[in-house]
Design goal:
6-stranded mixed sheet, single chain
C-alpha cells in the first residue's frame, strides 16, 4: 500500500512538473507578446494602383497587396488629407477588414475639383512619390439623362472552379472612362453602363450593340482579359481566372489579348509616416520656463489640435512639417503649478488619436525638482592685440530644453588671465579673474533634442510559423499534463 502511494506521489510530481513547463512557456510567450503575432509582414505595399469610376462627385482607387491587409484612403483638397474612406465592402458596417484586392470609393465630392489622396496600407502611408500624394480631378456635372444601357454582369471562378470572391473587375471601351467593381462572395459582379462617361468625363458615352468592351479581372496572383460586345454585357459567360477570352468570337479560352485601350496603373511609394506622440514634455516633467516649448511627431503635414489646460485654457491649431515633426510655444504665460497638454491628430490609419501628458511649471526663482543634463560649455573668443582684449560672448538668460532626462544644472565658473604673447584659461570653483577688457557670463549651448521614434502597432500582423508552433506546443504540454494527472488521480482513488 505504501509503495503504491509513493509511486502515485512520484507520478503526480512528474505530471505537475510537465504542467509547470507548459504553463511557464505559454506565460513567457504572452508576456513577450510573441504568441500568435510574430513579426510585421513586409508585403503590404500597394501594387497595380488604378483610379476609376470618376464622376462629378466620386472616384475609386483600387490596388492589390500580396497578403491580407487592412487598407483605407486619406484624402482632401490640400495636403491635410483629413478625411478617411474605407473599402467599399466595409463602408456599410464601418468595420475595417483585411483584403488582398482593395477597392475604395470616395463619395460626396465637389465637381471639377482637384483632390489629393494617399493610401494607408497596414498603418503605413503610401504616395505616388516621396511624400507627394496622388491627385485626381472630378468631372463636371452632366445635365443630360443617362443612357438606357443595361448593366454588365457575370461570374468569375478560380482555376479550381471555386468562386473568386476577392477579385477586381475593370471595364473600358473605345473612348470611354474606366469603370470597376469587385466580386461578391459568390464570385459575381455587376457594373452599371448607363452612366459611363467619355474619356474627357464631360458627357455620357452612347454606344450600339456592336461596341467592344475590354474587361480585366485581377486578384493578388493572376488575371484574365476578356473581350465582348455590348450586346453580350447583360450576362457575360463564365470566366475562369488566369484564362483569357474573346467572346466576340466564341466562349473558348484563348492565349492572350492585345488591344488599343487598356487600364493604366500608378506606382506607390512609402512615405515617412510617424506615430503621433508628445516628445516634450515627458509625463510629469517640470519646467522653470513659464512658456515652455512643446515638441512631438505626427503624420507628415498633418493638422494638430493642441490644448493646454491651465488656469486658462490655451487652444491652438498647428501643422506638422513634411517630415512629421511639430513644435509649439504658447504666446500666453502659463501660471505656476501642475497642468496638462493634449494633442489630437490622425494616426497611421487616419483615426483621430488623443494624447495627453501632465507637466509642472515652477514659479520664477524656485528650484526644479528633477535633474538637468550637464552639457553646457563656455565659449570664449580671445583676440590678441598690442593691448590684450578678451571678448566673452554672453546670453543673459539660459534656457534648458530637456532631451530625455534632466541632470543637475552645473555651476559654471572660470578664472581667466591673459598676457602677451600667450593667454591662459583655468577654471576655479568660485572666482572669475580676468586680465584685460572682458564681459562676464559665458554662453551655454545645449544639444538639439533627439527625437526617438516609437512603434505603436494597432493591428497585429499575421503570426510567424515559429511562434505559432511554440505556442501550440505549450498548450499541448499543458493538455498532456492535465490528462496524465487525471489518470493518476483515478488510479489513486
Amino acid at each position: 500500500m505504501n509503495k503504491f502511494l509513493w509511486k502515485t506521489k512520484i507520478n503526480t510530481i512528474i505530471i505537475f512538473f510537465i504542467i509547470t513547463i507548459g504553463v511557464t512557456t505559454t506565460i513567457l510567450l504572452i508576456k513577450d507578446k510573441s504568441i500568435l503575432i510574430g513579426r510585421a509582414n513586409p508585403s503590404n505595399m500597394p501594387d497595380k494602383v488604378r483610379i476609376t469610376n470618376v464622376s462629378d462627385s466620386s472616384f475609386t482607387v483600387s490596388y492589390i497587396t500580396s497578403t491580407m491587409t487592412f487598407g483605407t484612403l486619406s484624402y482632401g483638397i490640400n495636403n491635410d488629407q483629413e478625411k478617411i474612406s474605407l473599402d467599399d465592402r466595409d463602408q456599410l458596417s464601418g468595420i475595417i477588414k483585411q483584403y488582398k484586392a482593395h477597392h475604395i470609393t470616395v463619395r460626396n465630392l465637389d465637381q471639377n475639383t482637384k483632390y489629393l489622396f494617399s493610401i494607408i496600407s497596414a498603418g503605413e502611408k503610401y504616395t505616388i512619390s516621396d511624400n507627394a500624394p496622388y491627385t485626381i480631378t472630378t468631372g463636371a456635372t452632366i445635365f443630360n439623362k443617362p443612357t438606357n444601357q443595361e448593366p454588365l454582369s457575370g461570374k468569375i471562378n478560380t482555376n479550381l472552379n471555386k468562386s473568386s470572391n476577392d477579385t477586381i473587375i475593370y471595364l473600358s471601351g473605345q473612348d470611354t472612362q474606366v469603370l470597376s467593381t469587385t466580386t461578391d462572395k459568390n464570385g459575381q459582379y455587376i457594373i452599371p453602363l448607363n452612366a459611363i462617361r467619355t474619356l474627357a468625363l464631360n458627357n455620357y458615352k452612347s454606344f450600339d450593340k456592336n461596341q467592344v468592351f475590354k474587361i480585366l479581372a485581377i486578384d493578388s496572383e493572376t488575371q484574365s482579359t476578356i473581350l465582348l460586345l455590348a450586346s453580350q454585357a447583360k450576362q457575360v459567360p463564365l470566366v475562369i481566372l488566369s484564362q483569357s477570352y474573346d467572346f466576340t468570337i466564341n466562349q473558348a479560352p484563348i492565349a492572350s489579348i492585345s488591344g488599343t485601350f487598356g487600364f493604366p496603373i500608378f506606382t506607390a511609394t512609402q512615405s515617412a509616416n510617424k506615430n503621433p506622440q508628445i516628445i516634450t514634455p515627458k509625463k510629469e516633467e517640470s519646467f522653470k520656463d513659464n512658456r515652455p516649448i512643446f515638441k512631438g511627431t505626427s503624420n507628415p503635414n498633418a493638422n494638430i489640435e493642441i490644448i493646454i489646460n491651465s488656469t486658462i485654457t490655451i487652444k491652438e491649431r498647428i501643422k506638422a512639417n513634411s517630415m512629421g515633426s511639430w513644435t509649439y510655444r504658447p504666446t500666453q504665460i502659463i501660471s505656476p503649478g501642475k497642468h496638462t497638454v493634449s494633442i489630437t491628430t490622425p494616426d497611421q490609419f487616419g483615426i483621430l488619436k488623443i494624447i495627453t501628458h501632465s507637466f509642472t511649471v515652477y514659479a520664477s526663482g524656485s528650484q526644479v525638482s528633477q535633474t538637468a543634463t550637464p552639457s553646457a560649455t563656455p565659449i570664449i573668443s580671445i583676440t590678441k592685440n598690442p593691448t590684450p582684449t578678451i571678448n566673452i560672448v554672453v546670453i543673459p538668460s539660459i534656457k534648458i530644453v530637456p532631451i530625455s532626462t534632466i541632470a543637475p544644472l552645473p555651476t559654471v565658473t572660470a578664472t581667466i588671465s591673459a598676457s602677451i604673447p600667450n593667454s591662459s584659461i583655468s577654471p576655479t570653483s568660485s572666482i572669475i579673474a580676468i586680465s584685460g577688457i572682458a564681459t562676464p557670463a559665458p554662453t551655454l549651448i545645449l544639444p538639439t533634442p533627439k527625437i526617438i521614434k516609437k512603434t505603436n502597432p494597432l493591428i497585429p500582423s499575421v503570426g510567424s510559423s515559429t511562434m505559432i508552433t511554440t505556442s501550440v506546443t505549450g498548450f499541448v504540454i499543458i493538455a498532456i499534463g492535465i490528462f496524465l494527472f487525471l489518470i493518476t488521480k483515478g488510479s489513486a482513488l
